[in-house]
């Protein structure tokens, strides 16, 4: 059985800032602290955290939603890619960031904690430093 979860975070920057940082190699690297090669094109591929995470952009709605295939080096060769959906909703003082991660191979429950530790904490620090 595949694993799925959803996490909602709030950041003190606009959806535009998050959208651009997610899809820009230099900004994504600065935002997370891991080496990233990103694409802002549908069908474009990406690699983050020094090649640990790879995938392809499926759908991009400017400053609103990013949908990507997503896998790590921990996926078995025969495992289907998981799907990552990021929804950005503008708030009065920032952005609601909803992460929906679906179709994760069974037994790989570490990603929910990984998102918080390797993405949300560094993102919060990075966006705070932009103020």
Textual characterization of the structure:
- β2 (45-48) and β3 (53-61) form a beta hairpin.
- The model has no long low-confidence stretch (mean pLDDT 96).
- This protein has a 6-stranded antiparallel β-sheet with strand order 1-6-5-4-3-2.
- It has one domain (3-130): Alpha-D-Glucose-1,6-Bisphosphate, Chain A, domain 4.
- The protein has helices at 15-23, 25-32, 111-130; strands spanning 3-11, 45-48, 53-61, 65-72, 82-91, 94-104.
- 28% of the residues lie in helices and 39% in strands.
- With 131 residues, the chain is an alpha+beta fold.
* Count of individual domains: 1
Indicate the radius of gyration in whole angstroms.
14 Å
Distance between the termini: 43 Å
CATH class: Alpha Beta
Number of helix segments?
Answer: 3
Fold-level CATH name: Alpha-D-Glucose-1,6-Bisphosphate, Chain A, domain 4
The secondary structure category is: alpha+beta
* Major sheet attributes: 6 strands, antiparallel
Keywords:
alpha+beta, 3 helices, globular, 6 strands, 131 residues
Briefly summarize what is shown.
The chain is α+β, with helices and mostly antiparallel strands and 131 residues long.
Layout of helices and strands:
Blueprint: E1 3-11, H1 15-23, H2 25-32, E2 45-48, E3 53-61, E4 65-72, E5 82-91, E6 94-104, H3 111-130
Antiparallel strand pairs: 1-6, 2-3, 3-4, 4-5, 5-6
């Amino acid at each position: 059985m595949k694993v799925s979860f959803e996490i909602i975070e709030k950041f003190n920057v606009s959806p535009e800032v998050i959208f651009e940082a997610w899809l820009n190699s230099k900004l994504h690297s600065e935002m997370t602290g891991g080496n990233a090669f990103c694409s802002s094109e549908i069908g474009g591929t990406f690699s983050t955290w020094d090649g640990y995470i790879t995938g392809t952009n499926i759908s991009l709605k400017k400053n609103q939603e990013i949908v990507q295939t997503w896998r790590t080096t921990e996926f078995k060769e025969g495992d289907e890619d998981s799907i990552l959906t990021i929804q950005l909703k503008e708030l009065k003082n920032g952005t609601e960031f909803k992460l929906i991660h679906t179709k994760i191979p069974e037994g790989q429950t570490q990603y929910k904690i990984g998102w918080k530790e390797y993405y949300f904490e560094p993102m919060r620090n990075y966006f705070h430093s932009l103020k």
